[in-house]
Amino acid sequence: MAISLHARVSQQVALTPQLQQSIRLLQLSNTELEQELAKVAEENPLLEFEPNPEIESNHSQIQAGLDSPQITWSGGGQQSGEDDEDWTEQYERLAHQQTLLEYLQEQIHLLKVEPEEQSLVAYLAGCLDDRGYLPESIESISQEISLEIGATAEQALLRASRALDQLQQLDPPGVGAKDLSQCLSLQIERILQGTALHQEAWELALAIAKDHLHKVGTRDWLKLKQTFHKTEAEVSKAVACLRSLQHNPGAEFEREVDQWILPDVVVKQSQGQWVVNANQNARPKLSLNNEYARILKESGNDEATGALKQKMLEASWLVKNIIQREETILKVAKEIVARQQKFFAIGALGMRPLVLREIAEAVGMHESTISRVTTQKYLSCPLGIFEFKYFFSSQLGSEQGGSVSSTAIQALIKQIIAEESNKKPISDSSIASLLASQGYVIARRTVAKYREALRIPAVHLRKH
């Protein structure tokens, strides 16, 4: 038997730790970033981190109510040891409640796949929203990572799709779905694999979830019976199965917290223009402890020196990624402010149509990156504090051939209703007519949709 050697070249997905860290930091709000840096600084002696006094002060106020609990005393006049243990457990839960991402990361580390694929699954987990859904298309994500891993578009899509399959097998069931239909389908498929109980009902529920979920929303039971040739009892049983499922896989990880916002940037008027500057109070005070590094280096311990180099490398990555995060946020904020000058002058009525793609092209970044930058990032201006996402809205046409943002139309609707008579409130149709007289041709149902988005009651409920 002949033995021969063959060289083979293959591409591997390699999302570097630096890249993963950069993406994670970009998604964090200022408060979350503060917590992340404090945690990292505890683990790395080469990092010097000084907590932001404004955030610390806010945390202290929130924590004050947690640090002075009502103590329950036993009948014997001494505090119960069992109560002590209960309070300790409560403090631990209050100090840190596991997030959906952390829960998924624990499972991802146990996946029996190649490290490169494990890394990609972790990347997709970081792209999930609070519900546990994947709002970006897998095609968009694969396009983004193909540049980073040096793979072709086809290779990146194949590997991203495979990683998504892995993610969707994790708990909670339904995680990684693109929409409610897929979320329910993933849960049902897992149920069908694990039990034979009510098999027919679950199979019908799966068929409904995949292609006919809208009929459940409209309670069109007759159409469902006709489509699947089933009795009313069989359809009812399948719908009951659907309603027993979790529509929001991330629900158990949601928590209500006191929201306190420290703006990332500040917008002020200068020489007739609205300009944006970084908020110096929001800048993390993070630096390298060179003195401590020098002392360790002079110790002469080779093992310590090796560990030191790794800690120094990790610290340098973090500092660079923090700087890059600040630069990216400021760059995106400047582009938004440049396009929304009229908003800062007159408010929502001056909002112009704007989409993520427009900013992405201007700064030379991917749309998904812009989406991360505009989430939980805030700007302060004379009109108040606004999330970056607020400045993005769809475009509506006008009779003059121009365009107006949906935000501006909502502001007009709000203004019209604010000026109406309590005894004779104006209907959605009349609002549509008034807007048309101003050159904005908007359908009545669109007016109703915007009115509901503004949480303004229907005409018959506004009459006094």
Can you walk me through this structure?
The strands form three sheets. The chain has a four-stranded mixed sheet. It has a two-stranded antiparallel sheet with strand order 1-4. The chain has a two-stranded antiparallel sheet with strand order 7-8. It has 464 residues and is of the alpha+beta class. The protein is built from 21 helices and eight strands. It folds into four domains: 96-177, RNA polymerase sigma-54 factor, core-binding domain (Arc Repressor Mutant, subunit A, Orthogonal Bundle), CATH 1.10.10; 180-248, no CATH class; 265-391, no CATH class; 395-461, Orthogonal Bundle (Arc Repressor Mutant, subunit A), CATH 1.10.10. A hairpin with a 2-residue loop joins strand 2 and strand 3.
Q: DSSP helix count?
A: 21
Number of domains: 4
The largest sheet has its strands arranged as 3-2-5-6
The unreliable regions are: 1-14, 58-96
Question: How many beta-strand elements?
Answer: 8
What is the chain-wise order of helices and strands?
Answer: HHEHHHHHHHHHHHEEEHHHHHEEEEHHH
The pLDDT mean sits at 78
Structural class: alpha+beta
How far is the N terminus from the C terminus? 96 Å
- Give helix % range: 40-55%
Shape: flat
Radius of gyration: 28 Å
Task: Summarize the main sheet.
Answer: 4 strands, mixed
Beta percentage is 5-15%
